[in-house]
Amino acid sequence: MAKQVIKVEHLEKYYQKDHILHDINFSIDQGEVVALLGPSGSGKSTLIRCLNGLEPYQNGTVTFNGDQVVPTEKNWQKLRQKIGMVFQSYDLFPNLTVLDNILLGPVKVQKQSRETAKAAAEKLLDQVGLREYENVYPRQLSGGQKQRIAIVRALALNPELMLFDEVTASLDPEMVRGVLNIISKLAQDSDMTMIVVTHEMNFAQQIADRVLFLEDGKILEQTKGDQFFKQPQTDRAKEFLESMDF
Amino acid sequence: MAHSGINVLFEGRNLIRLFGGLWTTVEIAAVALVLGLILGVILGVLRTFPNRLLRLVLRLYLEFFRIVPTVVLLFLFYYILPKQLGVNMPANQVATLVFALWTAAEMSDIVRGALISVPKHQRESGMAIGLNRLQLYRYVLIPQAVSLELPATINLVTRVIKTTSLLMLISVMDVINVGQQVVEANNQKYPTGVFWVYGIIFVMYFAIDYPLSWWAKRMDKKRLERANG
Ligand SMILES: Nc1ncnc2c1ncn2[C@@H]1O[C@H](COP(=O)(O)OP(=O)(O)O)[C@@H](O)[C@H]1O
Ligand SMILES: [Mg+2]
Questions:
Q1: Does residue B46 surpass a pLDDT of 50?
Q2: Which tens digit of pLDDT belongs to each residue from A85-134?
Q3: What is the pLDDT of residues A3-39, one digit of tens each?
Q4: Which of A36, A216, B144, B178 has the highest local Cβ count within 10 Å?
Q5: Domains in chain A: how many in total?
């Protein structure tokens, strides 16, 4: 049986009085790709931000690699090396070159030597086809290029789990393919465990081993990927897929 | 023959004395600025931390130095505090201290403003790669804040230098004070000397401050140009 990477039990999240996430339960095994789908405002971003401690939660537990997380800032800060996250807005650090953006985590957080980290970073840059941009500043890159670098920056820490939050949502259409291909390749070639929030249904169908369908802060269904897109179990999910022109 | 007023500058050691006074001014301003800017950055960073009490105390510190006129601060530190606390500091050191604390207060506001205008996503991206708070400030937030705050900082520096003209009030032998003595000593011989003495002091301040404010303006313009694409 595959190793369980993350388990969430009875998670509850409030923003002041607003109850945003209701009794969230799921777990993900190593190498599994989970698509987190749902209408806008259903709580997808909030949920994955709870999984690397960017948002506090008021109740329930997160268990990572078998250890229940004691949710202090210090603990989350250590765990974030193992839980990579890429956001919708491609926010590279504008004051650093592409290479320094990537090396910041490995060198300063993980205390790798710059040479070792650089060799690894260049390998990753080769894989995303951006090796020749290593000494360039982010403002000289296109949105798609920035987002590919942001993915490399997260991967450079050698995470065990990757969280992607609508990483193509603010890209020009012609840039989307390239970024999605990188995520697909990551799922296939390196067997990365990941949670992908996306509104690209074809892409979700292609990579998802399983779909979590979220609405109004509740998980309405957890279905195997191929099945979800052919035969969703709930009417809400069916309506959702129709609304996405799928 | 009527003496031409300008010769007052070349009489005896007058010019050397004026430059000596200028040097005292520059020395006090320079030390105060270095200390004040460093302390100001630290206080500015602290003012972005979540701790409410800390923020309140630092806010009060800023408001105190902002509201109380610098003249009053100088008198307060030079005449009143020594009597109350029994500390005796030479006037130069008192002046340096007052200017450093004032610079730190103003700088803390500039730094805080720049730090909170760095987009929230930058902070979160830094946290997402595992940076701790110190690293986040050191590698991500402060470098980005610096480019935002540089023009305001240079303006602060010019203001501090200008305000050093108040140093004469607490008997620091700064350039203004020396100037006044020169004027008084030569009043008989050079009735119009006062114009020349203050004229050259004006030129001295101008020569220091103008390049700074020109630099600040140019940087602001460049940044606006870049922001507008
Ligand atoms: N910082 C916040 N403060 C208050 N409410 C928030 C905040 N962020 C998100 N919300 C609310 O939480 C709900 C879920 O938002 P979000 O997780 O962004 O949804 P999704 O990513 O699925 O579009 C929404 O109703 C949103 O208005
Ligand atoms: Mg979202």
A1: yes
A2: 999 987 899 999 999 999 999 999 999 999 999 999 999 999 999 999 99
A3: 999 999 999 999 999 999 999 999 999 999 999 999 9
A4: A36
A5: 1
Which residue's structure tokens are 């979700």? Answer: A204
pTM: 0.83
Give the single-character DSSP code of B129.
Answer: T
Candidates A87, A91, A108; nearest CB to B131: A108
B 124-183 residues with CB below 8 A of A? 124-132, 135, 139-140, 143-144, 147
* Domain span including residue A198: 4-243
A contact residues 151-210, partner B, Cβ 8 Å cutoff: 153-154, 157
State how far the Cα of B84 lies from the Cα of B97, in Å rounded to an integer: 17
Nearest to B131 among A96, A109, A150 (CB): A109
Q: What is the CATH number of the domain that holds A181?
A: 3.40.50.300
- Residue B117 sits at the chain A interface (C-beta within 8 Å): no
Residues 6+ apart with CB under 8 A from A197: A35, A36, A37, A44, A45, A48, A164, A165, A166
The token duo for B16 is 């050397």
Q: In B, which residues are within 8 Å of A87 by CB distance?
A: 121, 124-125, 128
Partner-chain residue, chosen from B126, B130, B144, that has the shortest CB–CB distance to A94: B144
Domain B5-227: homologous superfamily in CATH: MetI-like (1.10.3720.10)
Query: Are B130 and A81 inside 8 Å of each other by CB?
Result: yes
pLDDT in tens, B170-217: 777 778 888 888 888 888 888 888 888 888 888 888 888 888 888 888
| Eight-class DSSP state of B50 | S
Contact residues on chain A for B123, CB-CB shorter than 8 A: none
Tell me if B9 sits within 8 A of B75, measured CB to CB.
Answer: no
Contact call for A78 and B126, based on CB within 8 A: no
- Ligand 1 centroid from CA A201, angstroms: 22
Task: Give the domain ranges of chain B.
Answer: 5-227
